[in-house]
């Protein structure tokens, strides 16, 4: 079983840098209250860390 994260975009991207917008888009989020499930990897952890102030993250183990 691979560990996963359930990621929800909680805040608007208005006023964020282009790098932060790219990180949110890379996670697969498009608008506020979108929820995606991503696999645990160093790349995904880095993307989540870059924009952690905009997200709500729950740890799952699917």
Key phrases:
2 helices, 62 residues, single chain, three-stranded antiparallel β-sheet, Ribosomal Protein L30, Chain: A, alpha+beta, 3 strands
Shape: globular
Task: Report how far apart the termini are.
Answer: 6 Å
Low-confidence runs: none
The biggest beta sheet is recorded as:
3 strands, antiparallel
How many helical elements?
2
> Which range best describes the helical content: under 10%, 10-25%, 25-40%, 40-55%, 55-70% or over 70%?
25-40%
Strand order of the largest sheet: 2-1-3
Overall structural class, as computed from helix and strand content, comes to alpha+beta
Write down the secondary-structure element order.
EHEHE
* Mean pLDDT score: 94
- How many discrete domains? 1
Q: Might you state the CATH topology name? A: Ribosomal Protein L30, Chain: A
Could you explain the architecture of this structure?
The chain contains two helices and three strands. It is α+β, with helices and mostly antiparallel strands and 62 residues long. It has one domain: Ribosomal Protein L30, Chain: A (2-Layer Sandwich). The protein has a three-stranded antiparallel sheet, with no helix packed on it. The longest helix has 10 residues. It is globular, with a radius of gyration of 11 Å. The protein starts with a strand and ends with a strand. The model has no long low-confidence stretch (mean pLDDT 94).
């Amino acid at each position: 079983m691979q560990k996963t994260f359930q990621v929800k975009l909680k805040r608007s991207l208005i006023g964020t840098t282009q790098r932060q917008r790219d990180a949110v888009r890379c996670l697969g989020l498009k608008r506020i209250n979108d929820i995606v499930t991503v696999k645990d990897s160093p790349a995904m952890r880095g993307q989540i860390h870059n924009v952690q102030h905009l997200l709500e993250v729950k740890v799952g183990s699917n």
